[in-house]
Amino acid sequence: MNYRKLGSSDLTVSEIALGSWLTYSGGVEKSQSIACVKRALERGITLIDTANVYGKGAAETVLGEALAGVERSSYVLATKLYFPMTETDRGLSRVQIEKQLDASLKRLRVDHVDLYQCHRYDTETPLEETMRALSDAVKSGKTRYIGFSEWPVAKIREATEMMGVEKFVSSQPQYSMIWRKPEDEVIPYCAAHGISQIVWSPLGQGILTGKYLPGAPPPPGARATSASMGPFLQDLAERRAVLEAVQQMQPLAKQAGLSLAQFALAWVLREPNVAAAIIGASRPEQIDENVKASGIKVDPALFAKAEALLRPALQAA
Fold it and tell me: Domain 3-236+261-297: which CATH class?
């Protein structure tokens, strides 16, 4: 496993991170979830990402059990807030930041997280209130650093330029070979201001693994067949052209000596501003495969050919 510095912080994180969105919030049995966390730690993954809203606290609770007894300094723990936890508990107000952080710490069984992230931008709360509350959370020792996910660049800039508050060290955007929007504004701005990317869905919700074949039903056991996880995934029937292009990438991945999943992860990690790519594993074997993408150097010409294959399908989508 290779490691990268997270923005302007003193945190070093594994290039492959373990996420818990659909998997450990109820999509995978608890024993299997804990087995995946244990395997991730064995394979050198140090960054573990979650959020209070994943299963309305379920993912944090599972992680708290899985990490019990593990040396706290051996892993970097990140969680988030914003989305509704109850009919009244939501957003990024000072009250919610204080309340939700305490609740997350209790479920995670720790006295602090390393990274506390704003899951989305809150248009109903003044940005200054949010930033000062986050700054106080850092001062209290309950979080070491702060970050955000899917914020508009104008608000990232406003927060960065605000005086007397903690600075963001991380951004968590969706980013993959089939979703490159962060390259337009987010990555350039963040790279210039000490903010690293922690990427979610680097495998395009499984599309870039090649397991979904054009015109065929999802394979047994795939997330697309899960009653709890499937509804959150993209409609595969509407992405036939993309699925076909992904299959055409198989020889390129093979030429690089990689599986398609490893090839797609290596593509994300080719970007210097990306500190880590978050994977979601429902089986320990998936972790074994995905961690092999760390530190891989791929001929840029192969990536260029893959991008050329995908471009027409993405433009038509």
Answer: alpha beta
